[in-house]
Structures are given as C-alpha cells and as structure tokens.
Write a structure and sequence with these properties.
With 372 residues, the protein is of the alpha/beta class. Helix content is 43%, strand content 15%. It is built from 15 helices and 13 strands. The strands form four sheets. A five-stranded mixed sheet has the order 9-11-10-12-13, sandwiched between helices. Strand 2 and strand 3 form a beta hairpin. The longest helix is centred in the C-terminal third of the chain and has 19 residues. The chain is globular and about 60 Å long.
Amino acid sequence: MCPFHKDANASLVLYPKTKSFYCFGCGASGSVIDLTMRIKNFDFAEALTYLKNLYNITETKINHAGLHKKNYPTNNSSENVKSTNAEIYKYFFEILHLTKNGRVYLLQRGLSESTLEKFKVKSIDEPKRIFNQLKKRFKIDKLKESGLVGTSKKGTDYFVFFLPAIIFIHFENNKAVYFSSRNLKGNTKSFKMRSVEQKYFMGFDKEMEIYIFESIIDGLSNYELYGDGFISVNGMNSLNIEKFKNLLNKFPEKHFIMAFDNDEAGKKKQQELGEQVKKISNFSILNWESVFEECSVENCKDMNEVLMKFNDNKVNKQFQSNENGTSNIKLLLNKLSPEQRENFEERAAIMEYDGGLTSTIAEQEAIKIIAG
C-alpha cells in the first residue's frame, strides 16, 4: 500500500533492480533514499544515516543518483566554485531524481533512458518540498549566495525553480557547478539561477567535433541521433560574444559547429556571431539541409524536431513492413529480448498506457526499441 495517499489497491511498486519505487495511484516516485526521506520526514543526510545503521552499510556501498560513480558528464574546465556553494550544489544534486512527469515529457521528446542517465537529467514535481529540504539544511543567506534562492521586489525569498521542471546539472571536473531548467508548466520556458555567473552546459569529453545549440534539449537530441558532443548556451539572449570566443580558443584542438535554431532569429544570430569569430579557424556553421537529407526529414525548426520526426519515420517504416499494413503488438513483443521486454514493460507502465501493452503508443515504443 502506498503511504502517501488513501490506497486500497496496493498501487506502490518497488523495483529492486533500480532501487527505486513508483506509485501508480498518486505518482510518487524516487530512490530508496527518497522513500525513506518522505516516510520518516528526514532530510537527505538523516535518511542516509538511518539506512546505513539499519542495514549496516559501509560508506563505499551507498549509491544514490550516481553519487559514488565515476561516470559523471565531464569537460576540461578548471573553473572553481565557492566551497559553500559547492556543498549546496552537491546536496541539491543528491536530493533530485527523474520523476514520472519529467521522464514522460523527455521520452515523448524522443530521448532515451540511456541518454537521460548519461547526462544525469533530473526533474522536480514538488518545488515546495525541495525548497523546504534546502532551507532545513542551509541558512537562507547561503542559499541566496548559491543562486538557488532569489528575493522578490516585495522582499520575499523564493526558490528559483518554483515550477515543476526538468533540471539539467552542469558539471565541471565531475562536480555540479550550475543548474538550469525547462519548465513543465506555465508560459515561461525556464528560470535561471540568481546572483551567480551563468554557465554553458558542456556535454562533451573527448569528442573532436562539438555542436553548439541554443537549448540543452537540442544538444541531447543531437547526441541521441549522432553521439556527438555539444554545448548549450542557454538561449541566444544570454550569449556573451567575448565569453564565447574565449571558449573556442580554450579548446584549439576541437572543431565547433554552430547549430542555432533553423528560424529567422537563429539564422540572424548565427550570421552575427559568424562575423565576430570568422578569424577563428576551428569554427563553422551547420548545414541544416544536409541534416534533413541524412535523417530523411523535411524542414525542422531545431534538432529536437529532427529527432522526433526521425523517430516517427522509423515507426512508420515498421508499420508499412507488416504484411497486413498494421502492427501487431504480440508480434512486436515476441521480437524483444527478455531484457528489452522488461525495459519496455516498465516504460509502458510508467507512461500509463492503457493496459500497459495494448495502445498504439505502446506499439510505437516497442517498434522504436526494435528499430534501434
């Protein structure tokens, strides 16, 4: 039974393989540590200590959201973050997870679970609860210095990510140094951290070709399609020319390809930027027509739209290859390996398809897995 709502149908499911839980009644989800925090009303540190003592776990055995793994997204930056801020950022990263609503949104945008895991993408469904956890752990003045809390014109302190949102973690030298968002509600696409320097999202490591996008979603979409490294500048309005030129000069061995949105505003900004950095030899501009031809799609506004249309084309081809011209869910599921089948069923359940395995959308998900 789920402890978070009146439950008569045993709606909460535990997933031992991923050490996580999900309630199909109220949508509560997270890791075993999140579950302990909510049931016991603990903060992260208290929940960690409780579980360590309960199960006699040593420090090196504990793993939460990749906390003790060495596969964080990395880049070669050497910039430092104030030590107090670093502690706050570390804690904020630790208490985040990818919620049901966040996962559904990102899967519908064409991104895979492996890409979301690689780049440690998280989301917030309950901003007030996260804000309370931060205030319980740190003084409000320190939270303001970190940029996670701002002050309104009326003098009220507020959490900068006060709407449900996707949260992107910016890493430098394997440490969280900045957070940006994509809102799941409201008209404003995102909110930015206050009082700290805005940082680019550096989604590359050893790749030699680095694509530069306006949004992180586009960068992740490009990675999904090609596996290329990328940088997101978090929107054209926040792009500082000198900072951008310094970035290009910082990595002379890499080739940077500008891939702003394929609309009038994006083209205009690319042209202006191209004039500013044309003397830098490791810089060029993406040819969108070649992308459309390679992916067999027509005119798209940005790379995420390319990804979504590309995925739709794969699905349509699978439909057309069926003898009867229609898909057969049983036939499709028989093509999946046991591991793929388990992954599909969990995704289908999380996304709340009718019956889990019988809707057209569920069939499309199976086809995407088969099409690879």
